[in-house]
Amino acid sequence: ALRLVFVIARLDALARLLEFCDKAQLTLILHRLCPDALPPWAECRVRQNLLDYSVRFARLKRFLFEIAAAFETRGIDYIVLKGLAHSPDFTPDPLLRAQGDIDLWCEPAAIETARGVVLDLGFRPFAPAERRHLPPMIRETHWQWRGDYFAPDLPIPVELHHQLWDDEFESLPIGGEEAFWSRRTTAIYDGRPLPVLARPDNLAFAALHFLMHLLHGDLRLQRAWEIARFLHTFSRDDAFWSAWRREHPQALRRLEAIAFQLCADWFGADLAETAAEEIAR
Protein backbone atom coordinates (compact mmCIF):
# COMPACT_ATOMS: atom_id res chain seq x y z
CA ALA A 1 0.00 0.00 0.00
CA LEU A 2 2.81 2.41 0.86
CA ARG A 3 4.54 1.64 -2.43
CA LEU A 4 1.29 2.35 -4.28
CA VAL A 5 0.87 5.68 -2.47
CA PHE A 6 4.47 6.59 -3.35
CA VAL A 7 3.96 5.75 -7.03
CA ILE A 8 0.72 7.73 -7.18
CA ALA A 9 2.42 10.70 -5.50
CA ARG A 10 5.26 10.60 -8.05
CA LEU A 11 2.81 10.41 -10.94
CA ASP A 12 0.84 13.33 -9.54
CA ALA A 13 4.00 15.39 -9.04
CA LEU A 14 5.15 14.76 -12.62
CA ALA A 15 1.70 15.56 -13.99
CA ARG A 16 1.75 18.86 -12.08
CA LEU A 17 5.29 19.56 -13.33
CA LEU A 18 4.19 19.09 -16.95
CA GLU A 19 1.17 21.32 -16.35
CA PHE A 20 3.49 24.00 -14.95
CA CYS A 21 5.84 23.61 -17.94
CA ASP A 22 2.91 23.94 -20.36
CA LYS A 23 1.97 27.32 -18.88
CA ALA A 24 5.61 28.43 -18.65
CA GLN A 25 6.28 27.37 -22.28
CA LEU A 26 9.00 24.97 -21.12
CA THR A 27 7.52 21.59 -22.04
CA LEU A 28 9.17 21.24 -25.44
CA ILE A 29 12.49 22.54 -24.08
CA LEU A 30 12.34 20.05 -21.21
CA HIS A 31 11.84 17.25 -23.71
CA ARG A 32 14.77 18.41 -25.85
CA LEU A 33 17.19 18.83 -22.94
CA CYS A 34 16.17 15.79 -20.87
CA PRO A 35 14.86 13.19 -23.35
CA ASP A 36 15.66 10.24 -21.08
CA ALA A 37 14.32 11.71 -17.86
CA LEU A 38 10.62 11.19 -18.57
CA PRO A 39 8.76 7.91 -18.00
CA PRO A 40 7.15 6.37 -21.11
CA TRP A 41 3.68 7.83 -20.53
CA ALA A 42 5.09 11.36 -20.14
CA GLU A 43 7.40 10.89 -23.11
CA CYS A 44 4.40 9.87 -25.22
CA ARG A 45 2.42 12.87 -24.02
CA VAL A 46 5.18 15.38 -24.81
CA ARG A 47 5.88 13.80 -28.21
CA GLN A 48 2.22 14.34 -29.09
CA ASN A 49 2.52 17.94 -27.87
CA LEU A 50 5.47 18.39 -30.23
CA LEU A 51 3.60 16.89 -33.18
CA ASP A 52 0.53 19.04 -32.54
CA TYR A 53 2.54 22.21 -32.08
CA SER A 54 4.55 21.50 -35.24
CA VAL A 55 1.31 21.79 -37.20
CA ARG A 56 0.45 25.07 -35.49
CA PHE A 57 3.99 26.40 -35.97
CA ALA A 58 3.72 25.78 -39.72
CA ARG A 59 0.51 27.86 -39.74
CA LEU A 60 2.20 30.59 -37.72
CA LYS A 61 5.09 30.86 -40.18
CA ARG A 62 2.68 30.89 -43.11
CA PHE A 63 0.73 33.78 -41.55
CA LEU A 64 3.95 35.66 -40.75
CA PHE A 65 5.32 35.32 -44.28
CA GLU A 66 1.93 36.35 -45.70
CA ILE A 67 1.84 39.52 -43.60
CA ALA A 68 5.51 40.27 -44.33
CA ALA A 69 4.91 40.00 -48.08
CA ALA A 70 1.88 42.31 -47.84
CA PHE A 71 3.88 44.88 -45.83
CA GLU A 72 6.71 44.78 -48.34
CA THR A 73 4.30 45.22 -51.25
CA ARG A 74 2.88 48.32 -49.55
CA GLY A 75 6.33 49.65 -48.64
CA ILE A 76 5.77 49.32 -44.86
CA ASP A 77 8.95 48.93 -42.84
CA TYR A 78 8.69 46.47 -39.94
CA ILE A 79 10.79 44.35 -37.59
CA VAL A 80 9.99 40.82 -36.46
CA LEU A 81 10.09 40.54 -32.66
CA LYS A 82 10.59 37.33 -30.64
CA GLY A 83 9.51 34.12 -32.35
CA LEU A 84 11.78 33.22 -35.26
CA ALA A 85 13.99 36.19 -34.39
CA HIS A 86 15.09 34.42 -31.18
CA SER A 87 16.69 31.51 -32.99
CA PRO A 88 19.47 30.46 -32.93
CA ASP A 89 20.85 32.97 -30.38
CA PHE A 90 18.27 32.37 -27.65
CA THR A 91 16.99 28.92 -28.55
CA PRO A 92 18.50 26.25 -30.82
CA ASP A 93 15.18 25.68 -32.58
CA PRO A 94 12.32 28.21 -32.85
CA LEU A 95 9.88 25.30 -32.58
CA LEU A 96 10.88 24.90 -28.92
CA ARG A 97 9.54 28.35 -28.00
CA ALA A 98 5.93 27.17 -28.34
CA GLN A 99 5.31 30.67 -29.70
CA GLY A 100 1.83 32.02 -29.08
CA ASP A 101 1.53 35.00 -31.41
CA ILE A 102 3.18 37.09 -34.11
CA ASP A 103 4.82 40.33 -32.93
CA LEU A 104 5.79 43.01 -35.44
CA TRP A 105 7.22 46.46 -34.71
CA CYS A 106 6.34 49.37 -37.00
CA GLU A 107 7.17 53.04 -36.70
CA PRO A 108 4.30 55.09 -35.19
CA ALA A 109 3.75 56.96 -38.46
CA ALA A 110 3.13 53.67 -40.30
CA ILE A 111 1.21 51.74 -37.66
CA GLU A 112 -2.29 52.56 -38.94
CA THR A 113 -1.34 51.66 -42.50
CA ALA A 114 0.06 48.37 -41.21
CA ARG A 115 -3.17 47.80 -39.30
CA GLY A 116 -5.17 48.29 -42.49
CA VAL A 117 -3.06 45.71 -44.31
CA VAL A 118 -3.59 43.12 -41.55
CA LEU A 119 -7.33 43.84 -41.60
CA ASP A 120 -7.36 43.33 -45.37
CA LEU A 121 -5.82 39.88 -44.79
CA GLY A 122 -8.84 38.87 -42.72
CA PHE A 123 -7.63 39.52 -39.17
CA ARG A 124 -9.94 41.21 -36.68
CA PRO A 125 -9.36 42.73 -33.19
CA PHE A 126 -10.39 40.49 -30.30
CA ALA A 127 -8.88 42.17 -27.22
CA PRO A 128 -8.12 45.70 -25.96
CA ALA A 129 -5.01 47.59 -27.02
CA GLU A 130 -2.05 47.95 -24.70
CA ARG A 131 0.15 50.99 -24.44
CA ARG A 132 2.87 49.41 -26.56
CA HIS A 133 0.77 47.82 -29.29
CA LEU A 134 -2.58 47.96 -31.08
CA PRO A 135 -5.41 45.54 -30.20
CA PRO A 136 -4.33 41.96 -30.97
CA MET A 137 -5.99 40.55 -34.09
CA ILE A 138 -6.90 37.03 -35.18
CA ARG A 139 -8.67 35.51 -38.15
CA GLU A 140 -12.28 34.70 -37.38
CA THR A 141 -12.71 31.26 -35.87
CA HIS A 142 -15.19 29.15 -33.92
CA TRP A 143 -12.36 27.64 -31.87
CA GLN A 144 -12.92 27.12 -28.14
CA TRP A 145 -10.36 26.61 -25.39
CA ARG A 146 -9.98 22.92 -24.47
CA GLY A 147 -7.06 23.18 -22.06
CA ASP A 148 -4.51 22.22 -24.73
CA TYR A 149 -1.65 24.70 -25.10
CA PHE A 150 -0.36 22.85 -28.18
CA ALA A 151 -3.60 22.46 -30.14
CA PRO A 152 -2.93 22.70 -33.90
CA ASP A 153 -6.02 24.89 -34.39
CA LEU A 154 -5.19 27.34 -31.58
CA PRO A 155 -5.80 30.87 -32.95
CA ILE A 156 -2.70 32.89 -33.87
CA PRO A 157 -2.90 36.54 -32.74
CA VAL A 158 -0.98 39.33 -34.47
CA GLU A 159 0.29 42.24 -32.37
CA LEU A 160 1.48 45.41 -34.09
CA HIS A 161 3.85 47.29 -31.78
CA HIS A 162 4.50 51.02 -32.08
CA GLN A 163 6.99 50.99 -29.19
CA LEU A 164 9.01 48.41 -27.29
CA TRP A 165 9.04 49.94 -23.82
CA ASP A 166 6.78 52.54 -22.22
CA ASP A 167 8.97 54.79 -20.06
CA GLU A 168 6.03 56.60 -18.49
CA PHE A 169 3.87 53.57 -17.72
CA GLU A 170 6.72 51.45 -16.34
CA SER A 171 8.20 54.46 -14.46
CA LEU A 172 11.64 53.29 -15.59
CA PRO A 173 13.03 55.43 -18.44
CA ILE A 174 15.65 53.79 -20.65
CA GLY A 175 16.23 56.03 -23.67
CA GLY A 176 17.78 54.88 -26.93
CA GLU A 177 14.86 52.86 -28.32
CA GLU A 178 14.91 54.83 -31.56
CA ALA A 179 18.46 53.60 -32.18
CA PHE A 180 17.17 50.01 -32.19
CA TRP A 181 15.24 50.82 -35.35
CA SER A 182 18.21 52.36 -37.13
CA ARG A 183 20.44 49.36 -36.28
CA ARG A 184 17.99 46.71 -37.55
CA THR A 185 19.41 43.93 -39.67
CA THR A 186 18.20 40.95 -41.73
CA ALA A 187 18.07 37.23 -40.95
CA ILE A 188 17.07 34.29 -43.14
CA TYR A 189 14.33 31.90 -42.00
CA ASP A 190 13.15 29.05 -44.22
CA GLY A 191 14.98 30.72 -47.08
CA ARG A 192 13.17 34.05 -46.56
CA PRO A 193 14.84 37.28 -45.40
CA LEU A 194 13.13 39.03 -42.48
CA PRO A 195 14.09 42.29 -40.73
CA VAL A 196 15.10 41.74 -37.10
CA LEU A 197 16.77 43.65 -34.28
CA ALA A 198 20.55 43.73 -34.18
CA ARG A 199 21.95 41.16 -31.77
CA PRO A 200 22.72 43.56 -28.84
CA ASP A 201 19.29 45.15 -29.22
CA ASN A 202 17.57 41.77 -29.44
CA LEU A 203 19.13 40.89 -26.09
CA ALA A 204 18.04 44.25 -24.66
CA PHE A 205 14.48 43.75 -25.85
CA ALA A 206 14.40 40.23 -24.42
CA ALA A 207 15.64 41.57 -21.07
CA LEU A 208 13.10 44.41 -21.04
CA HIS A 209 10.30 42.05 -22.00
CA PHE A 210 11.37 39.70 -19.19
CA LEU A 211 11.50 42.55 -16.68
CA MET A 212 8.15 43.97 -17.76
CA HIS A 213 6.36 40.65 -17.23
CA LEU A 214 8.23 40.04 -13.98
CA LEU A 215 7.02 43.38 -12.62
CA HIS A 216 3.49 42.78 -13.90
CA GLY A 217 3.34 39.33 -12.29
CA ASP A 218 2.81 37.25 -15.44
CA LEU A 219 6.31 36.08 -16.36
CA ARG A 220 6.71 32.84 -18.32
CA LEU A 221 9.88 31.10 -17.24
CA GLN A 222 10.82 30.21 -20.80
CA ARG A 223 11.79 33.87 -21.31
CA ALA A 224 14.37 33.55 -18.52
CA TRP A 225 15.78 30.28 -19.90
CA GLU A 226 16.34 31.92 -23.29
CA ILE A 227 18.20 34.87 -21.81
CA ALA A 228 20.31 32.54 -19.67
CA ARG A 229 21.18 30.48 -22.74
CA PHE A 230 22.19 33.64 -24.63
CA LEU A 231 24.38 34.83 -21.76
CA HIS A 232 26.03 31.41 -21.52
CA THR A 233 26.56 31.06 -25.27
CA PHE A 234 28.09 34.54 -25.67
CA SER A 235 29.97 34.63 -22.36
CA ARG A 236 33.35 34.61 -24.17
CA ASP A 237 32.42 36.84 -27.09
CA ASP A 238 34.30 40.03 -26.20
CA ALA A 239 33.42 41.74 -29.49
CA PHE A 240 29.72 41.31 -28.83
CA TRP A 241 29.92 42.71 -25.30
CA SER A 242 32.01 45.67 -26.43
CA ALA A 243 29.30 46.55 -28.95
CA TRP A 244 26.59 45.97 -26.34
CA ARG A 245 28.20 48.39 -23.88
CA ARG A 246 28.95 50.98 -26.57
CA GLU A 247 25.47 51.00 -28.09
CA HIS A 248 23.29 50.93 -24.97
CA PRO A 249 22.98 53.93 -22.61
CA GLN A 250 23.60 53.43 -18.91
CA ALA A 251 19.89 53.52 -17.95
CA LEU A 252 19.17 50.67 -20.36
CA ARG A 253 22.19 48.62 -19.30
CA ARG A 254 21.11 48.92 -15.66
CA LEU A 255 17.72 47.32 -16.37
CA GLU A 256 19.30 44.65 -18.55
CA ALA A 257 21.68 43.79 -15.72
CA ILE A 258 18.75 43.04 -13.40
CA ALA A 259 17.42 40.51 -15.89
CA PHE A 260 20.91 39.08 -16.48
CA GLN A 261 21.51 38.40 -12.80
CA LEU A 262 18.15 36.73 -12.22
CA CYS A 263 18.33 34.55 -15.33
CA ALA A 264 21.94 33.54 -14.72
CA ASP A 265 21.16 32.65 -11.09
CA TRP A 266 18.07 30.66 -11.98
CA PHE A 267 19.73 28.60 -14.72
CA GLY A 268 23.42 28.60 -13.79
CA ALA A 269 24.64 30.49 -16.86
CA ASP A 270 28.22 31.69 -17.25
CA LEU A 271 28.54 35.48 -17.52
CA ALA A 272 30.87 37.60 -19.61
CA GLU A 273 33.09 39.93 -17.60
CA THR A 274 31.24 42.95 -19.01
CA ALA A 275 27.86 41.56 -17.95
CA ALA A 276 29.18 40.74 -14.48
CA GLU A 277 30.55 44.29 -14.13
CA GLU A 278 27.17 45.78 -15.05
CA ILE A 279 25.47 43.56 -12.46
CA ALA A 280 28.00 44.67 -9.81
CA ARG A 281 27.16 48.31 -10.55
Give a verbal description of the structure.
With 281 residues, the chain is mostly helical. The chain has eleven helices and seven strands. The strands form three sheets. A three-stranded mixed beta sheet has the order 1-2-5, covered by helices on one side. The chain has a two-stranded antiparallel sheet with strand order 3-4. It is globular and about 50 Å long. The mean pLDDT is 93.
Query: Which structural class do you get from the secondary structure elements?
Result: mainly alpha
Number of helices: 11
Q: Please, what is the average pLDDT?
A: 93
| Low-pLDDT segments, ≥5 res | none
What is the N-to-C succession of helices and strands? HHHEEHEEEHHEEHHHHH
Beta-strand content estimate:
5-15%
Radius of gyration, rounded? Answer: 20 Å
Strand order of the largest sheet: 1-2-5
Instruction: Give me the count of strands.
Output: 7
Helix content: 40-55%
Outline the biggest β-sheet. Answer: 3 strands, mixed
Looking at the structure, what is the overall shape? Answer: globular
Oligomer: single chain
Q: For the record, give the distance between the C-alpha atoms at the N and C termini, rounded to a whole number.
A: 56 Å
Question: Which keywords apply here?
Answer:
two-stranded antiparallel sheet, 54% helix, 281 residues, single chain, mainly alpha, 3-stranded mixed sheet
